[in-house]
Amino acid sequence: xxxxxxxxxxxxxxxPLSMSEVCRKMTLMRQILTSCFxxxxxxxxxxxxxxGHVLTTSTSTSLLQAVSSSEPLLKLITASILNHLSxxxxxxxxxxxxxxxxxxHVQKSGLRPSVAIKINKQLxxxxxxxxxxxxxxxxVNVDFNSCQSLVTLARSVISSKPACVLTEGExxxxxxxxxxxxxxxxxxGDTPGSPDRVRLGRTVTVSIEGQFVLDxxxxxxxxxxxxxxxxxxxxxxxxRRGPGPFRLALFTVSLSGDLSEFGEGSLEVHSGAPxxxxxxxxxxxxxxxxxxxxxxxxxxxxxxxHPVLQHYLRRHGVLVVERLGIALIQPIVQMTGxxxxxxxxxxxxxxxxxxxxxxxxxxxGSREMLxxxxxxxxxxxxxxxxxxHRNDTMLNKLKAACQRAEHVxxxxxxxxxxxxxxxxxxxxxxxxxxxxxxxxxxxxxxxxGVSQSQYLLGLNGFCSSLEAVALALVHDGETGLVDLSYAHxxxxxxxxxxxxGTxxxxxxxxxGTxxxxxxxxxGTxxxxxxxxxGTxPQGEALQRGDGDEIPTTCGCxxxxxxxxxxxxxxxxxxxxxxxxxxxxxxxxxxxxxxVLDSFxxxxxxxxxxxxxxxxxxxxRYVIQDVN
Amino acid sequence: MGSTIISQRLxxxxxxxxxxxxxxxxxxxxxxxHKFIQDESTGESSLVCTCFRVLEHLDLTCSVGQLANxxxxxxxxxxxxxxxxxxxxxxxxxxxxxxxLHRDISxxxxxxxxxxxxxxxxxxxxxxxxxxxxxxxxxxDSGTSVLQGSPHTVLRNPVTGMNPSHGALNxxxxxxxxxTHSRHFCANDEADKNTTPGLFSHAVSSKxxxxxxxxxxxxxxxxxxxxLVVEVSKMQxxxxxSGDSCRTFDVNKLVTCTLPGLSEDHSCVLPGCVILLSAExxxxxxxxxxxxxxxxxxxxxxxxxxxxLGFNSKNDISQVTDKLDLKGLSKExxxxxxxxxxxxxxxxxxxLVNGEASERLTQHCMSHRILxxxxxxxxxxxxxxxxxxxxxxxxxxxxxxxxxGTGVEISIWxxxxxxxxxxxxxxxxxxxxTALVTVVLTTSVHSKLQTLEDCFWxxxxxxxxxxxxxxxxxxxGKTELLCVQILQKHIKDNxxxxxxxxGTSAPQxxxxxxxxxxxxxxxxxxxxxxxxxxxxxxLNSGTCSKVDAWTTINQQLVDLxxxxxxxxxxxxxLLRDDxxxxxxxxxxxxxAGKVYDNMTVKLEAWRKALDLVFLVLQTDTEIxxxxxxxxxxxxxxxxxx
Lengths: 627, 641
What we know:
The complex is a heterodimer.
Chain A: E1 11-14, H1 20-36, E2 43-48, E3 55-57, H2 60-66, H3 72-88, H4 92-109, H5 113-132, E4 139-141, H6 148-159, H7 168-185, E5 202-209, E6 217-220, E7 222-225, H8 233-240, E8 246-251, E9 267-270, H9 276-293, E10 298-301, H10 307-315, E11 319-321, H11 326-336, E12 340-341, E13 354-356, E14 358-364, E15 367-373, E16 382-389, H12 392-414, E17 417-420, H13 424-439, H14 441-448, H15 452-472, E18 478-483, E19 489-493, E20 502-504, E21 515-516, E22 527-528, E23 535-537, E24 569-571, E25 596-598, H16 599-618, E26 621-624
Helix pairs in contact in A: 1-4, 2-3, 3-4, 3-16, 4-15, 4-16, 5-15, 5-16, 6-7, 6-12, 7-12, 9-10, 13-15, 14-15
Chain B: E1 2-7, H1 12-22, E2 35-38, E3 45-48, H2 51-57, H3 63-79, H4 83-102, H5 107-127, E4 130-131, H6 150-160, H7 164-170, H8 178-185, H9 187-194, E5 204-205, H10 211-217, H11 223-239, E6 248-249, E7 254-260, E8 268-271, E9 273-278, H12 279-287, E10 293-298, E11 317-320, H13 331-345, E12 350-353, H14 359-367, E13 371-373, H15 378-388, E14 405-415, E15 424-431, E16 437-443, H16 449-469, E17 471-474, H17 478-500, H18 519-540, H19 546-561, H20 568-575, H21 586-591, E18 596-598, H22 599-617, E19 619-627, E20 638-640
Parallel strand pairs in B: 7-16, 10-12, 12-13
Antiparallel strand pairs in B: 1-19, 1-20, 2-3, 4-17, 5-6, 8-16, 9-15, 10-14, 14-15, 17-18
Helix pairs in contact in B: 1-3, 1-4, 2-3, 3-22, 4-18, 4-22, 5-17, 5-18, 5-22, 6-17, 7-8, 10-11, 11-16, 17-18, 18-19
């Protein structure tokens, strides 16, 4: 065999980041991620070029999985974000925006990548150190004595997915359900056998299209789809019969009675010999007999059960459920303590039987489902979350959002803390490291082996990148402000809070305009970010918010305007000399927090973003096999 | 493979939605115009007159079309009515959203104001719903108009935030109507409770109301179809032991059977089910008249080859034999004998098969006076299982004594063998105590069958929802007019409020945003959407042009604000038919003021319409995957990732 075409040699790209095409693609990607960010984020419609199913989304997981790029650097970043999401389910867009911002700022600052990498690493340590401090200003403890902070955490996840199209009441309902489901899956007491380990239960989601969102509900136990249940009057009798516990048998092997498990090849049957189908059916009926003598009352199978066997079992008062699907097997095993049997030729071992406390038929929306109740109370609890929504697109998004929320809630079990949301953590942290970095610049520069001005330049880029994330929360028509005392994030309507000395750039998305502002420290060039609102104030940035335009609270709800008179604001991403360290808000007398983010997820996202940015900055050559 | 990004700066999506909705404008109101949809490539065409059928037949390649279709079909699947209203409102509100964008209102503001507007209106509509007990028989005429005075109460309750029932009682003007309305005000919670899961729970009985009158109120111009629905209710009530009156209606115990060829007057309602049989089989039925028979039910096909779902047949099984089979008996013969013996042993006279039945066996059975009927609907089998006590089985060989059901009557209903068509007889099979009712829909125009069926089911479900909600909304555009009025009232109050003090006390400080500066603008545009709905209704009724309609509506609004109650003439105007055609009986004309809509369906349709608009409005980018970057080079609105 000879090759039809000559093998092309690999293509090597030198310093990929200096290529305008690569930069353009990275800017585009950053714009996509930025515009998706937050509760007011924009949706994207993704479909293929032959007119397939349309995916409407703003979540990082769906978006990054669907959108592919030809650029290796982008692929690298996408893959690392998806990897982060698979572990933490949250902060995917955050990771992306921060990572692209960091790369962008380093490129614009003119710092050598090696220097920038060193500085970024050091600042990341400062950040993680800051976030891990006990008295960190952007951290709150999650109080398990009340569900309030849990509900807030869940709502922050759910409300940041505009594709779910929920009203505020619906958001609250779903968030409460998410917390309810989460609490049901936390076992009370120790897991039998291993006292020092806690085994969490699981939530199974059932989604129903076309119903009211407020009909969504959480049930302890499992809901099993039994479509043709009403055809068998005996089943309804069984479900109505007195209290359990009932013995349950669970099969994963197909009991359809076919010969498929004998594999390929032809079969020769001697005439007069019994029909193989009948032989198998006899085996199955023997199994049924055993189940009946062992007083099994619920007989379930992942796949198909031969109708004759079903008939036999039903006649003996056994509740038969077939075609459970693989997804339900694990939850059933966990809930009932049954062992899934994968063989029908041998008798069922007695230890394979599980138990349910009872079962009843439940009408959920348009479906009738069999409700299996968990056998005993302090068990690895399994619960079912029924989600209803008006159409399929929104329902899928809602389902994903609830699963995110559950994951985020679970993360709080390991680390019972949360971070302030609404961009406040980023602005606060930026102010903190900006202050700390400036005051300790000389020392830090010395230890890193860079010049002080280089260090300040790197520090500046890092802080701007953090603020860029907060700024990504405000979309067109709004502008992001930061107050000078607590360094929390405030969003206001554009053109109302900033009265004078403001240059409004039009939409800068396409051109990716970068405006250069005034240099403050010698040798420092400051870039005003023009990601979305493109607001760059000239001259003195400080101004006093006067009354109406500034909202009553900051992004996370911790700082109230009325309670703290004399606050001063400045637009985000403007520089002013010597910023004081931000004050920590005393959390004892504070109002209800509106937005909370997962601590664990965000901390990891921060690390992934900085490390990815450093990695990409470090890439000198890209070698592509073009065959 | 790269991805291509198209930025939708111009909000093409909203325009597409408006355009799509415009297709169905002529379906609004009682006088529907049919549409022909023709497929150029295949030459096929179909006649449609409902919104969801249009979408079903359109090749919706654009992403917005797909979204709209998905929403409509989901709504149709659950409610079986209101899809037209949904798409219409989606269309007009997407135009409103577009207009908002042109006025530089930011998207979060549009979204929050529009959902607030809808919330306000839904609340008011709920509290102004009419209990079904209050829907009086039309004969007793207008004196008790349920709508009288309601606008007063409406306007006060949301604006002042006062406890509505107190507000109503303290208001001197309304002392006359307080009794009717006090119930409506506290109806909110009850309505919520009603929406909990059991949407499909079974028969809805109408305690103390006459279904016939309700049916007329929600017939929406489909008088013939609705009279069939009333017939169904009568028959079900009779089976229920409620005598001759209409007391109960169970939409789940209802099937339709369409018979082309007969004229439309032949449509009728029969107990049990109706099936078409060949003349041969029908001759057997002649002998089976006026007796109770035994029945068995088969899930799947009645044939030797059939295996249950999930059974993977192995094809390569070969029989090896060492002697010649002289008897020539095949496996199939064995099976047939086996089945026939089982049937005879159990005294079975009727075999109802879900799938297909083997022709030979059917013949054999017939010679033994056993009737085999194939292709029975699962719903019907289910009903037979419940009423006769038969246990459905998959294989006929499985049958035993306890699987056999009893008490089935068979009779010939009508000879349907038209000329040039296969001889066929319509046979009626009824089980004892069954609630199942069949509606036979007939028409001489074959292509109208689908439309007739849709129309009938629309009526059936409207009645079903009426009885389930136990509440109705005033129809013929009155509810929409109310919404317009509410929004206008809010706009006015909003203006006064903002002039008085700063907006910080606005109740909906979403995300800490104090008030919404563009609330009034958005409300006005939203209200215009409803105005459009009413005027289209009037236009379709053939009474006036759209401009005249707007004038009339505006006049109505002025009158209403001046304290007058809704004019009955107004709604009569809406429904006045082209009387020259003699389409409307005098009775119908009188009933014109008595049109009602389903509450849950309508409010949910509005909600879904707005959701759809929001989804499209919030989308800024279309991403196409799997495109070769070279293909799109040079296109200005496209970027390659």
